[in-house]
Each structure stands twice: as C-alpha cells, then as structure tokens.
Amino acid sequence: MANLPLIKVPIVDYGPDQAAMEQYRKNGEERALRLGNRGPLRFDREGQLDPAILNAYSRCGFYVFEGLLGKEELEDIERDVAEILARAPVNKQAKVDSQGRPAFDADCTARNISWVKPLSDPLGGTGFANGRHPVKMIEPTAPKEAPEYVLQLVLGSLQFSDACLRLYGHPDLLAVAEAVNGEDFTPFNEAVWIKQPGLGGSVAWHQDGWTHWDSPALDEGTHGFNFMAQLYGCNAANGLWVVPGSHRRNKVDIKAMVEDAGSDRLPDAVPLICAPGDVVICNRQAVHGSFANTSEDVRVTLNFGFHRRRSVLGVVSGGVHNPVAVYDEERIRERSRVIMYAIDARHQRFPNETPYAYKPFAGQEDRYRWTPEVKTSLKDYNLLDLGI
C-alpha cells in the first residue's frame, strides 16, 4: 500500500515518564488480550448477531471485529485518505492546499477540520463539549522541527471520501447496528482520525454523551456507540484506551479517577490492539481517551456512530457537533438518508455482496441511488449530525 503524505519529524518520548509509560503500555496490552472481547464477526443461520459477541460487548463496552475489511477496501480507503491529506489546507488559517488548489473543505460551512499542536492535549481541563474532558494529559515536548499545528481530525468525512461512504454502508456493520440499537437506528456522526507519528496529540479521558445522564430511562446503551475501522491497525502507543465496564457506571468522576491513579495513566484502562482491517464497536458512555503519539506508527481510524431512535427523537441538542436544534422526525429522516446512499454506493463497488436493508426506508431503495449529483448534495450534510 502507498504511503500517506505525512510530516516527518524525529521521534521523541515521554521524557521522565517514559519508563513508566512503557510499563503501562505493556501491562495494558496484556490485560486487553485477556478480556475475551475480540474475534471475527459472526451471525447465526437466521442472520442474528452471535449472542456471545453481544454479551462481551455489554460486559466490556467494546469489541474488536478482527479481519473484517479486505485488502481491496483498505486500498480504496488509503487512496482517499492520502487525497484528503494532499488537499488539506496548508496551515490552520489557509483555504488552499500545498499546491495552491482550493482545500477539500474550502467551500463548506460546517467545521470539518480539527488541528492540534504537536503532542499536545488541547481539550483536557477546558470547558469544551460541556467540560467532558476534566483533566489534562501529559504533553511531551514536541521536536523542534515540528510545525505549529497538524491536522488530526476530519469531520463530515462521507462528503470527502467515497471509500468512507462505502464503508458506512457495510452490510455486516449495519446489521450489528440493528442488533444493538434496533432496526430503526439513526446516525450520529462520521470522522477520520489521523494520529501522525511523533506529532499526534492526545485526547483527554472522557465519556461522549451529555444529554441523558439524568434521564430515568438511562441504561448502558442510551448514548449510542461508534464503529472504529483501522486502516493500519493500532497499538498501545498510538491507539485509543478504554476503561472496560465503565459504560455501565453512569456519569463517572474522571477527575477523581485520575487523582486516585496519581497520573493520567488510569490503571484499569486497556488499549485497542488491532490489525489492519479490524473494526471496533465502542460504547460512547465508556471512559476513553488517547495519549500523544510518540511512536513511529501512524494511526488512521474511520469513526462512524449510531443511536437508538428513542434516544434522539424529540431531543433538543447540538452545540458540540452542530448548531442546537430539535431532533424531530423530519430532521432524523433527512440525516438518515445518507445510510441509503451509502448502501447503494457500496453495492455499486461490491456487487457480489448482499446489501443491507434499512427498515425505515423499506421499499424506497430506488429513490436513493448514488450518483455524482447526489455526491454534490452531501456538502455540509454533517450540519445535521445527531449528537446527544
């Protein structure tokens, strides 16, 4: 597979914390591989998700579907990610890429790029996203050759990458979404994380949800989940870490957890250990975060999440992923049509697969064919994201 156009810098470490970090990674990886929450995606003869997978996901808050994506699809994704990086703004203020062309998001209204100072934690201890990142992570000293900012997150990714859109329509993953959230599941949002070697910043420990913590109907699945597809795999140095079972503990006092640990190395957390083509399902209520990427390995993760319809219908939300709005039936249906386009786009690319049948649009498949004109209409579709 071709190389991405990444920024090359000397690799640094965690300084005085390096030995402790190396031991923490080793211990975390050993615990992760003992959890019993990984393996191939399995369905029974009736097409129902293996109950053992659902039970392990419920117990741990995440599950690793091993080897789900094949070489052909990974190559498609890599080409699109390389093009996104090549067409990215040349710096945080620019509207053009390194060759003077309009950047890939130049004509968009929505915020589609998140920048980070190398090896920094821009969110910990701030009020961002309703203050859900209460404690700052360790910030290693960046190499002097590093740029001031690096691109780390691309939001609204389905409008910029046909390969991402096709992955969004993966029949087996949509069947998992149905098994977890019901046949009328709804979208959340989509993104591509790019944690560059020696540059990628951390994401402070947090839980994703914010609307339903005080709801009498709150349970372990109220705030939905994310799929995390790994282009190159991930490890204890560059990957996401999760506290198993924390999705069942309602709203967690993360600041107290860090104080008890004596550092940002939460003792119960484990890293996602994945090979290229593995896809993780991760509960949004689980405590999770990532450390600065001081490794030599890039991580590219394609995120896309789903909710239960009852968790979003009638909710007044927004302000984190998009403007505040009422999530009524019309809003949900408009946002959900992207699932239909993704299903058709995937079928055009992989005609031997059996497409997923999304029940809320049953019998209307002919109205949602993927065409160049439809692709144009997806611009700023993520202004309709259903964040809760």
Report a brief summary of the structure.
With 388 residues, this protein is an alpha+beta fold.
Topology:
Elements (H helix, E strand, L loop, with lengths): L17 H16 L4 E2 L11 H10 L1 E4 L5 H16 L26 E4 L11 H4 L18 E6 L6 H7 L2 H11 L4 E10 L7 E4 L18 E6 L9 E3 L11 H8 L8 E2 L7 E5 L4 E3 L8 E9 L1 H4 L3 E2 L7 E2 L2 H21 L22 H6 L11
Parallel strand pairs: 1-2
Antiparallel strand pairs: 2-10, 3-4, 4-5, 5-12, 6-11, 7-10, 7-12, 8-9, 8-11, 13-14
Helix pairs in contact: 3-5, 5-9
Describe the model.
The protein is 27% helix and 16% strand. By secondary structure, the protein is α+β, with helices and mostly antiparallel strands. It has a single domain (15-308), classed as q2cbj1_9rhob like domain (Jelly Rolls), CATH 2.60.120. The strands form 3 sheets. An 8-stranded mixed beta sheet has the order 1-2-10-7-12-5-4-3. Strands 6-11-8-9 form a 4-stranded antiparallel beta sheet. α2 links the parallel β1 and β2. The model has no long low-confidence stretch (mean pLDDT 97).
